[in-house]
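Field reference: sequence -> structure
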Amino acid sequence: MEIIFASIVPAVLSAVALTCILKKTDLYSALTDGAKAGLSTTASILPSLVIMLTAIAMFRASGALDLLVSLLSPLAKLIGIPAECIPLMLIRPLSGSGALALGVDIITANGVDSLTGRTAAVMLGSTETTFYTISVYFGAAGIKNTRHTIPSALIADLVGFVAAAFFTRIFFS
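Structure field:
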């Protein structure tokens, strides 16, 4: 099985090279044109990403995250979400790597087989880094008006968080 996975990249590169040869296309020019397009896309979305990552750092450093956690804990407990998972719910729509780091902290503190650790793991797999995704794709497409995208995506994230807590409690309690 490992041999199959290890041969996927060389197989794809060989298929691309063979296609270029059969179509009599200059492989080097095609690769450099693709790299130029990739760099152009990166340059267009970079400002959005820098602003978003700066806002996340400011949110965490200001203590606003801790304040929101203390305010939301009673409501989370009422609907069956472990209080330790609230920071994950607040960071996940903003940053995948930040949410993953919080998930690791939750699992390390509570244990892999704990209800809280399992809930955090399911939450990570059931939701999206909404603002990151929107900033990347809308930035790349040049869309400035997100209209109903953000509220809809945040509602979907909330449903994913609540469903993750609910089903984790059903299957693992």
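Note: The chain has a mean pLDDT of 88.
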